[in-house]
């Protein structure tokens, strides 16, 4: 539900700020771009999207572990997926019961926002990322 709420918020933030232009200065300025508002909205959308990606990373890690259990053997992941999974499991263990994911979300978010995830996955698959 968290990811759905963030995506829904992004939809409302994507509403063009210029639609709300209002005359100012006694109608001398009849068009106001609302650029600063649009920039704030864009920043919020980026932030929300990062959190959605963090949630997806956590979900993927859980799914890999559940598949491994169901198969009764290790799964063969791709090079990039192997690195992403290992990075996730450095600090976020497989969850076997319902518990707070607050710290896990924060850690996954930092892994993404710092660029570490992209750098290490890119290195594993042979791509150069600054």
3D architecture notes:
With 130 residues, the protein is an all-alpha fold. It has a single domain, classed as Fumarase/aspartase (Central domain) (Fumarase C, Chain A, domain 2), CATH 1.20.200. Helix content is 65%, strand content 0%. The longest helix has 37 residues, at 35-71. The radius of gyration is 20 Å and the shape is elongated. The model has no long low-confidence stretch (mean pLDDT 90).
Fold topology:
Blueprint: H1 2-13, H2 35-71, H3 79-91, H4 102-113, H5 116-125
Helix pairs in contact: 1-2, 2-3, 2-4, 3-5
Number of strands: 0
CATH homologous superfamily designation: Fumarase/aspartase (Central domain)
How much β-strand is present in the residues?
under 5%
- Residue windows where pLDDT falls under 50 for at least 5 positions: none
At the third CATH level, what is the topology name? Answer: Fumarase C, Chain A, domain 2
- The H/E string reads HHHHH
- Helicity level, as a percent range? 55-70%
Task: Quickly count the helices.
Answer: 5
Characterize the biggest β-sheet: none
Domain count: the total is 1
* CATH architectural group: Up-down Bundle
Shape: elongated
Structural class: mainly alpha
The whole-number mean of residue pLDDT values reads: 90
Q: Using only CA atoms, what is the Rg? A: 20 Å
N-end to C-end Cα span: 34 Å
The CATH C-level class name: Mainly Alpha
